[in-house]
Amino acid sequence: MSESPVSETGRQEISIDFFRNEDAPGITRLFRQVYGEGYPIATYYHSEQIITENASGRLISCVARTAAGEVVGHNALVLLDPASHLYENAAGAVLSTFRGQAIFPRLFEHTIVQTGKRFTIEGIIGEPVTNHTHLQKMCLQLNFKESGLEVGLMRAAAYGVGGGEARRVSVLLGYFKHRAKAQTVFLPPVYQDELDFLYAGLCLQRTFAPPENKFPSAGNSQGSMTLFELAEVARIRMTAIGADFQPYTSRLEHQAREKGIVVWQIWLPLASPYAAAAADTLRRQGYFLGGVLPCFANGDSLLMQKVCQEPDWQAIQLFSERAKKIAEMVRGDWQGVQAKI
Questions:
Q1: Interval 6-20 mean pLDDT
Q2: Interval 297-318 mean pLDDT
Q3: Which are the contacts of 211, defined by CB distance < 8 A and separation ≥ 6?
Q4: Is a pLDDT exceeding 70 seen at residue 166?
Q5: Are 78 and 58 a contacting pair, CB within 8 Å?
Q6: How far apart are CA 225 and CA 28, in angstroms?
Q7: Where are the alpha helices (DSSP H) in 149-258?
């Protein structure tokens, strides 16, 4: 491969652009060099899958290239909800030999800002890691709204040497973009103060209504579970809370445990008056507060989470005062739940 032109500083000039099919082999090489075989999403190790996912719109890859076409950086949006055109920012990486040149900030801004000019995107969720604060600062510069803390979400091995000594890496939860609309929300009383704080920083039009303190007498719970086996994480997104909520979620948790899952996330719909009863039930089963996310098509969701081992709280590094307050609330609820188990 020929060398890219060199700037006056002696560095190769890097361009930031959207994905082209010929980038796919370079992306797979990038992920192997940065993460080894430890990145939890297998797509980025297979060129044809990268091409297919980008062609379908399920993945929107942005790349950093030398003038010779070598891929030296990648960041992406991953489709979470086709109905609401909701994406998640993910899969960021830069070759170690090109770090220190401010490549990733340019790549990151392109992903958050420029994608909406070419693609239909109504919302972008972000999950900046907490083993350092660099990405958190970049997020805030792009109007990131912090709304939760996902404890122990990723194995530290997924970050290679960047994982530090933490057994698992926690991430902040929030969003960059959201097509807000007025909604009615049923706040669980157990989290009244916490949710008051979270919503106060989101500037959304919400009507808060008193919830039911028990489950409906009839009706089945509905939801879907996604397993991220390499990350050892299960995400259960509830769309309806029925009379069978406790056995329904316990069954899914058991299925995930048999697959080696050590972190469970259950997203409760706050548009349901039964979310309060569901939250109380989950707390008795070891789940604790994660935060709130207003981006889903069926309304705001409350994150409840459960981990198999004590979180490495000391390894969590946070930049903003709001993030530190969120972490304080999450840790306080974890301690309260543990005291009652």
A1: 76
A2: 94
A3: 186, 187, 188, 189, 273, 274, 275, 276, 277
A4: no
A5: yes
A6: 28
A7: 192-200, 245-258
Cα 22 versus chain centre, distance: 28
DSSP 8-state code for residue 211: P
β-strand pairing of 14-18 with 59-66: antiparallel
| Alpha-carbon gap, residue 37 to 198, rounded angstroms | 37
Per-residue DSSP letter, 230: T
- What are the DSSP calls for 85-151, one per residue? TEEEEEEEEE-GGGTTSSHHHHHHHIIIIIHHHHS--SEEEE--BSS-SHHHHHHHHTT-EEEEEEE
Place of tokens 């091995």: 157
306: phi then psi, degrees, rounded to nearest 5: -145, 135
Using alpha carbons only, what angle is made at residue 175 by residues 173 and 176, rounded to the nearest 5 degrees? 145
**3-class DSSP state of 198:** helix
> Is the dihedral angle over the CA atoms 256, 257, 258, 261 positive or is it negative?
positive
User: pLDDT tens, 230-268?
Assistant: 899 999 999 999 999 999 999 999 999 999 999 999 999
User: For residues 271 and 255, is the Cβ–Cβ distance under 8 A?
Assistant: no
Cα 271 from Cα 188, distance rounded (Å) = 11
pLDDT tens per residue, range 19-44: 999 999 999 999 999 989 888 889 99
User: Which two three-digit tokens encode residue 198?
Assistant: 């979270």
According to DSSP, the residues that pair with 63 across neighbouring strands are 17, 74
Which token pair is 11? 């560095």
Distance CA 205, CA 227 (A): 33
Q: Is the Cβ–Cβ distance between 306 and 287 less than 8 Å?
A: yes
Residue type, 121: I
Q: What is the DSSP string of 244-302?
A: THHHHHHHHHHHHHHTT--EEEEEEETTSTTHHHHHHHHHHTT-EEEEEE--STT--EE
